[in-house]
Design a protein that fits this description.
Blueprint lengths: L13 H12 L11 H8 L3 H13 L3 E8 L6 E4 L4 H6 L2 E2 L6 E2 L4 E7 L7 H13 L3
Antiparallel strand pairs: 1-2, 1-5, 3-4
Length: 137
């Protein structure tokens, strides 16, 4: 296990937790900044509820941080929304800085980002990648 905290929940479904641990530890840097529940669900072939539970567990244990983006329904521009701004958006919708379109709650999405590297050296991760590649036949 690359993230030792995940050992706590491995008894729930060991295969899912192991796959998530490997996936998270080997995720490219760019992808580490934009992790969604649906992305985890699709990548691991699990339901959305399980994906959300895994992400929330990691957030609680300081592996991931959560943030929100508002996506303009008109031009598609993404605007980062801080947690303390969410309530005010309910009362006062914001506007896209590019095209001035109104952004409402339905246009706001929750994302996660990796804030802590795995508890093992990179060499150990590389060995596991190589081991898995050898077993692909």
């Amino acid at each position: 296990m690359f993230y030792k905290e995940l050992l706590e929940i491995q008894s729930v479904d060991a295969a899912v937790v192991e796959n998530f641990d490997f996936w998270l530890a080997t995720l490219p840097k760019k992808s580490q900044k934009e992790i969604s529940v649906s992305m985890v669900s699709t990548q691991l072939g699990i339901d959305l509820a399980t994906a959300k539970q895994l992400l929330e567990f990691c957030k609680k244990h300081g592996i991931l941080d959560m943030y929100c983006i508002a996506k303009c329904p008109n031009c598609g521009m993404a605007i980062r929304i801080e947690k303390d701004q969410l309530f005010s958006i309910l009362m006062h919708p914001i506007h896209c800085t590019k095209c001035k379109a109104t952004i409402v709650l339905e246009n706001i999405f929750v994302l996660y980002q990796v804030i802590r590297r795995p508890d093992v050296p990179e060499e150990e991760i590389q060995k596991e990648i190589e081991r898995r590649l050898e077993n692909v036949d």
